[in-house]
Write a structure and sequence with these properties.
Blueprint lengths: L2 H6 L6 E4 L6 E2 L6 H6 L6 H7 L8 H5 L2 E2 L3 H10 L4 E4 L4 H8 L5 H4 L2 E3 L12 H10 L6 E5 L2 H9 L3 E4 L15 E2 L24 E11 L24 H5 L4 E9 L3 E10 L10 E6 L11 E11 L7 H18 L3 H4 L11
Parallel strand pairs: 1-4, 1-6, 4-5, 6-7, 7-8
Antiparallel strand pairs: 2-3, 9-13, 10-11, 10-13, 11-12
This protein binds adenosine-5'-diphosphate, riboflavin and magnesium ion.
Length: 354
C-alpha cells in the first residue's frame, strides 16, 4: 500500500503486535544463523521455520548484549504513554524473551501480553502466535497492526489477516516484502497516524532529534560522479573505521555540525547508506557542508556531530527529482540547526580537535 492510499482510507488500529529479534532488538549480530532464516524467500515455509534460531535458547552472556534497535525504546514509550495495548510476539521461548528484555528498562511492564513460540502450537510463519495475541487482547485481527522484520513474521501477520508493517532487518531486502501493507526502512520511519494511532510528538520542523553521535576522519575520494557539478559536493568519510557505529544507525538522511580544524565549523546535511538512485554496493557517508568553499579539502580531518534525522534514503524517478529533494533536505537542516536544541552542539569540543 502506498502512503496516499493509507491517507485516503485511514485504518482504525487499536493495538500493536511486535516481534522481538531484529524488530526491537539487534540479535542478528550474535546469532549468525539468523541471517539464513532472514533470507528465507517464502518457498519452504515450515522447513525453514523449524530452523529459526530465535527458537534456540540464548546464554546469559548473549542476552546481555542484545541491544535495542533505533526507535525501539521510543516506540514502546510512546504506545505505553498513549494507552495503546502492545503485545510482544516472538518465536523465542517465553523464558528467553524474558532474559532478553530484562536488560531494557520498562519493557516487560509495557506489554499487555508477551507470547513465546513455546506457548503456541506452531511458530511464525504460522499465524498461531498472532491469533493468540488478538484472543488475549480480545481484539479483532483487523484491529491489530503487526510490526515485523522478517519474512516469516510478515507471512504470519498476513495469514492472521492483520495489517503488517515490515521493517526489514537486512539491508536492501525491501523488494522481498511485497506481502506487507507497508515497508519502512527503520522504526524511525513509522507513521502511526497512517494507522489511526496517536502520532509521535517528537518531530520538530521536519526533523527527529537523535542522541548525538560522532564520526570523523580524513576526507576521502568518493565515486567522483560529479556531484560537485550538480552543486552538491559531499566530503566522503571512510566507512571502514565506523562499521560498528554505522550498523547501529539506520541508513538515511541526517544533519548536524561539521568541523574542519583549519577552516571552522559549518552546518551539515548528509546521507548515509547505499544511494538507492545509484544502487551502490557499498555504504557511503556523504556530508554536504552548507558553505561555499573556494577549494577542495581532500585529506583534511573532518569531524561530524550528528544531531537529527530527516528521512530514509530513497530511489527517485529522475536525477532532477533527487537533486530537488536534497535541496529540500538542505533547507530543513539549515533552519533546524538554528533551533537551540540543535545549535548548542556547535560548541562540542569534538568538532575542534585535530
Ligand atoms: P567525491 O566523489 O570525491 O566525494 P564530490 O564531487 O562529492 O567528489 O566532491 C567532494 C569534495 O569537494 C570534497 O571532498 C571536498 O574536498 C570538496 N568540497 C567543496 N565544497 C564542499 C562542500 N560544501 N561540502 C563538501 N565537500 C566540499
Ligand atoms: N542518494 C540517493 O540515492 N537517495 C537519496 O535519497 C539521497 N539523499 C541524499 C540526501 C543528502 C542530504 C545528500 C547530501 C545526498 C543524498 N544522496 C541520496 C546521495 C547522492 O546520491 C550522492 O551524494 C551523490 O550520488 C554523490 O555520490
Ligand atoms: Mg562526495
Amino acid at each position: 500500500m502506498n502512503s496516499s492510499s493509507i491517507m485516503c482510507f485511514p485504518k482504525l488500529i487499536k493495538c500493536v503486535i511486535i516481534g522481538l529479534d531484529g524488530t526491537l532488538v539487534n540479535t542478528d549480530a550474535i546469532l549468525s544463523f539468523q541471517e539464513y532464516a532472514k533470507q528465507w524467500d517464502g518457498r519452504e515455509p515450515l522447513q525453514i521455520a523449524a530452523k529459526t534460531p530465535s527458537a534456540l535458547p540464548c546464554s546469559p552472556f548473549q542476552c546481555c548484549n542484545v541491544k535495542a534497535l533505533p526507535g525501539a525504546n521510543r516506540l514502546i514509550q510512546h504506545l505505553k504513554t498513549n494507552g495503546v495495548p502492545m503485545v510482544l510476539a516472538s518465536n523465542s521461548p517465553r523464558e528467553t524473551i524474558h532474559a532478553k528484555i530484562s536488560f531494557h528498562y520498562g519493557w516487560e511492564d509495557s506489554f499487555s501480553v508477551i507470547i513465546g513460540g513455546d506457548q503456541v502450537p506452531t511458530g511464525k510463519p504460522s499465524p498461531d502466535i498472532f491469533f493468540e495475541a488478538a484472543r488475549r487482547l480480545r481484539m479483532e485481527p483487523s484491529s491489530c497492526l503487526v510490526i515485523e522484520d522478517s519474512l516469516p513474521g510478515v507471512t504470519a501477520g498476513k495469514a492472521a489477516e492483520m495489517e503488517v508493517v515490515a521493517v526489514p532487518s537486512l539491508p536492501k531486502q525491501s523488494h522481498l516484502f511485497t506481502a506487507a501493507d507497508e515497508v519502512i526502512n527503520s522504526l524511525l520511519d513509522l507513521r502511526l497516524e497512517n494507522w489511526g494511532l496517536p502520532p509521535f510528538a517528537d518531530w520538530v520542523e521536519g526533523t527527529l532529534p537523535v542522541d548525538p553521535w560522532y564520526i570523523g576522519g580524513p576526507v576521502v575520494k568518493g565515486f567522483g560522479r560529479g556531484s560537485k557539478l550538480l552543486g552538491i559536493p559531499t566530503a566522503n568519510l571512510s566507512t571502514k573505521d565506523y562499521l560498528d557505529i554505522l550498523s547501529e544507525h539506520p541508513a538515511g538522511v541526517y544533519f548536524g555540525w561539521a568541523g574542519l580544524p583549519a577552516r571552522g565549523i559549518f552546518k551539515m546535511v548528509m546521507s548515509i547508506g547505499w544511494n538507492p538512485y545509484f544502487g551502490n554496493k557499498e555504504k557511503t557517508i556523504e556530508p554536504w557542508l552548507l558553505h561555499e568553499f573556494t577549494e577542495d579539502f581532500y585529506g583534511e580531518e573532518l569531524r561530524l556531530v550528528i544531531v537529527g534525522y530527516i528521512r530514509p534514503e530513497r530511489n527517485f524517478p529522475s536525477l532532477e527529482s533527487l537533486i530537488a529533494k536534497i535541496h529540500e533536505d538542505r533547507r530543513v537542516a539549515e533552519r533546524a540547526l538554528d533551533l537551540p536544541m540543535y545549535s548548542s552542539h556547535k560548541n562540542d569540543s569534538y568538532l575542534r580537535k585535530s
